[in-house]
Amino acid sequence: MLLDTASLYFRAYFGVPESVRAPDGTPVNAVRGLLDFIARLVADHRPDDLVACMDADWRPAWRVALIPTYKAHRVAEAHGEGPDAETVPDTLSPQVPVIEAVLDALGIARVGVPEHEADDVIGTLAVAAAGPVDIVTGDRDLFQLIDDRRGVRVLYPVKGMATLTAFDETALRDRYGVDGPGYADLALLRGDPSDGLPGVPGIGEKTAARLLAQFGDLAGIAAALDDPAAPLTPAQRKRLTAAAAYLEVAPRVVRVATGLPLPAYDPALPTTPRDPAALDTLNARWGLGGSLTRLLSTLERRPDRPAVNQG
Q: In the 8-state DSSP scheme, what is residue 194?
């Protein structure tokens, strides 16, 4: 099980009232909401391994160099060196280090790679996995990794964090008319305002799906553009031709990386905390209460299994 951690703690923050606070009055709604969500995931899906995938760089410079608008509307402060600061609610930012510290004390693996997003870590882990993979995310970009043959599916929260929809290839085709790799092509043709991707003006989701059904993939569409006899309407041909420069670079931005070198990590879910003393201190400081108790109880009910170091 691979967690798109930032996506999930954002949902926890907006899904749990800010009145959930530490003893000193600091909001801990994102922390406690995420812990409760992980407890439910473990109880309901019983994964052998679980990795909290992290954004070491939420807006990598190499993606911005290709498409300057990429996530530009989310930048709170630009930095010449290192990642730009992302616009995050004032009461969420202080909770992120707490989340990281609690996951570390529990012994739940956290993996990030410099100059890459959590999506790229998830892509690398999903492709390398020997067995079935559940990706838990509120970001549709990761639909591109769905692969029935390899048992890769996405668990997508549809109402806050209470309800998950499982997307396999059948569900993806029913909803969007494409398979996993086709979703990346669909997304870049359609565009995505939440990521600052302009898409091809005049080509919406339905038209993009029809073009991909007709020509197979983005390369097939490009070949059709070079063929005057290809069955493109004049309007489609004009719009796609005008967007040629964007279509040349967009695949590198939209498609997740799948071959990153990863740091050493232990994906095995713990049955007891890695650092009980640190966890007790965090619990006392932040008042994690029933959320932490429920997660610990869920972990303790799992059978022991040998840890496997990977990296």
A: G
Q: Is 113 left (phi over 0), alpha (psi -120 to 50) or beta?
A: beta
**Are 269 and 50 in contact, with CB atoms under 8 Å apart?**
yes
Number of H helices, E strands in the chain: 13, 8
Determine the 3-state secondary structure of 234 from DSSP.
helix
pTM: 0.91
If we measure between CA atoms, which residue out of 204, 182, 206 comes closest to residue 191?
Answer: 204
SS3 at position 225 = helix
Q: Are 127 and 146 in contact (CB under 8 A)?
A: no
Rounded CA-CA distance 53/147 in Å is 19
Distance, in Å, from the CA atom of 5 to the CA atom of 97, rounded to the nearest integer, reads 12
User: pLDDT tens digit string along 55-106?
Assistant: 999 999 999 999 999 999 877 566 556 666 666 788 999 999 999 999 999 9
Output the CA–CA distances (angstroms, integers) from residue 83 to 57, 66, 105, in the order listed: 6, 16, 26
Helices (H), 46-79: 61-66
Contacts of 186 (CB under 8 A, 6+ apart): 176, 178, 205, 208, 209, 212
What is d(CA 105, CA 103) in angstroms, rounded to the nearest whole number?
A: 6
For residue 111, the surrounding DSSP H or E stretch is strand 109-111
| Mean confidence (pLDDT) of the chain | 92
Structure tokens, 89: 């609610």
Who contacts 93 (Cβ-Cβ below 8 Å, separation ≥6)?
A: none
Share of the chain above pLDDT 90, in %: 87
- Neighbouring CB atoms inside 10 A of 222's CB total 15
Higher pLDDT, 84 or 250: 250
